[in-house]
Write a structure and sequence with these properties.
This protein is mostly helical. It is about 75% helix and about 0% strand. It contains eight helices and no strands. The chain is elongated, with a radius of gyration of 27 Å. About 25% of the residues are buried.
Length: about 260
């Protein structure tokens, strides 16, 4: 999908899809239908021939739309789960670091708070533009170096430090899954197939022999539903872009309920 689509509010985008659906039927009945009738004729068996030809097409096209809708939804769920996992593990790391001696404890907690603020107010706006910033990786590396430099002095500290490093690795994996969502989208080649299939579907509808009013009403209903399905796929296509994008609510709650109280 073109980038400008994600800058359109959802209500306006839905309206444009509805207008395009109705407009396609009007254009098909006024322009495409007369031309196609000249090419293939308008015999009494036309509807039967069209129904025979559309049986297989509707099966495969409906299957394509269904799979794309499910795929887009699953992509959103996977990225949302990664964001929740990132915030959950980071909260555990922030709590467990209290067992470290100074200055490791205060320095690491300050780094974590800085990372959360950067993600909320710098990285997430970049996600909305289809990108991410290097500042997040730099902050993660700084935290990793800080923890790696700590030398446990007791068996208890050794156990705590091993658990901390394991949790930190889990945090980085969840963060990487979230960053992958910036570039998670349906390939353009599939969009070509979807749009071509939508055009063929409209053509087959307007070719049917029936009264114009009846054809317009039935065609509009069918095209409108097709537009709704395409709108849903577009809205869910890129999990971190557009008005329907996943929001950093788990990280924001982590900051508001835990970290803000430790700010100097």
């Amino acid at each position: 999908m073109p980038d400008f689509v994600y800058d359109i509010p959802l209500r306006d985008l839905a309206t444009w899809f509805a207008i395009a659906a109705v407009g396609s039927i009007i254009f098909g009945m006024l322009v495409v239908k007369p031309i196609m009738r000249l090419l293939i004729g308008a015999g009494p068996d036309l509807n039967e021939a069209i129904n025979y030809g559309t049986a297989g097409f509707n099966l495969f096209y409906g299957l394509l739309l269904g799979l794309l809708t499910v795929s887009a939804y699953q992509n959103n769920e996977r990225i949302a789960e990664a964001v929740l996992q990132e915030a959950t593990v980071l909260a555990a790391v922030y709590s467990d670091v209290n067992a470290y001696p100074e200055p490791t404890r205060s320095d690491t907690k300050a780094m974590i708070r800085d990372y959360v603020l950067f993600t909320l107010y710098k990285d997430w706006p970049a996600h909305a533009r289809g990108a991410y910033l290097d500042g997040g990786a730099n902050r993660v590396n700084a935290m990793r170096q800080k923890l790696s430099a700590f030398e446990p002095q007791t068996p208890g500290q050794e156990i705590l430090h091993a658990q901390m490093l394991s949790a930190f690795q889990e945090f980085t994996r969840a963060r990487q899954l979230r960053l992958n969502g910036v570039y998670t989208e349906i390939p353009n080649v599939l969009w070509y197939a979807v749009l071509v299939g939508a055009a063929i579907n409209i053509i087959l509808i307007v070719l049917l022999r029936m009264r114009p009013v009846r054809q317009f009403v039935l065609g509009t209903i069918t095209a409108f539903f097709l537009g709704v399905i395409l709108f849903v796929i577009v809205a869910l296509d890129d999990p971190l872009r557009g008005e329907a994008a996943i929001q950093p609510d788990p990280l924001r709650r982590l900051w508001d309920r835990v970290m803000i109280w430790d700010e100097p």
